[in-house]
Design goal:
Elements (H helix, E strand, L loop, with lengths): L18 E2 L4 E6 L2 E8 L9 E9 L3 E5 L4 E8 L2 E4 L5 E3 L3 E4 L6 E5 L3 E8 L1 H6 L12 E3 L9 H8 L4 H18 L5 H16 L5 H8 L3 H12 L3 H18 L5 H7 L5 H12 L3 H6 L3 H7 L10 H5 L1
Helix pairs in contact: 2-3, 4-5, 7-9
Length: about 325
Amino acid sequence: MGAYPDSTPEGDEGRVGPVADGPTSFSINGAQGSVRLRYFAPPDHLRDYFGSLYVFAVDGPCADVTRADVAQLRLLLKGAGRYRFQDGSVHEASDAILLGPTTGATRFELDGPACVIGVSVLPAGWAMLNYGPADALADTMRDAGDPQYGDLSALLREVRMLADPQAMAVRVWAVLSARIEQARPMRDSLRQFMAVVDAWLLGEGSPRIEALVAATGLSARQLARHTNLHYGAPPKLLARKYRALRCSARIVLDGASWQTLCEEGGFYDQSHFIREIKHFIGLTPQQLQMEPTAVAQLTLLRRSLGSDIALLNRLS
């Protein structure tokens, strides 16, 4: 599997907290052993379609929770595991999977040691790869070895033969680049719509539906149809999701007081704030502030890629 997935930076044994061994590599040593995550930004011509590529490795069995996110393509290079979605359904992970956009926290269990390579798929990438209505796969997963989803079986076999994460990333980006080039060009109207929705989600602490109606000229019903199709959820649920994601990042990375965020963020009261954070992040504000899990910390650290990835992916 190469040096990165099976190694821990020398001298960091037993350390709890992020350990950077490069601008995009982080490690946390906790109760479940060393958990490592390495990020790779997409090539310039793919940044509208994909967020970061990441290599996740753990030395032993691992159970944790991932926040609500954009869709993901994942290749299980080593180990086995399963996902538990917010509706209570449990799915065993195949070696190549497509996870739809999630509207709540998702629990995963890995029968480690395990190594996973994944790519965040932005709404434009979802449309270009012709994955169908995003809400049809929201909070669930499909076998990406199925020809309907591009059959990543051959790519999985190739990546497993590579010794270095950098080489893995190069090969995955090459395959995705070829598929984007072969796809039917996106309509200008759809590209503009996605730009408006992204700006709306990222421009306000608590995005207002009225602002999106004004920016697009569409009715609330039309907006729901379009955002369900491309983002996997209606505008109101998207607004709640990204408000919670923004707040969680400020708690963990910026050290912001969750009580202050509650007062500033358009929540009814502290109980409402706690419920929203728990639903979308999988942890309470207090847990985020005092004892965030390894995956919660490492996921948020992709913000370190800065402008090399889409702002939507830095937040989600």
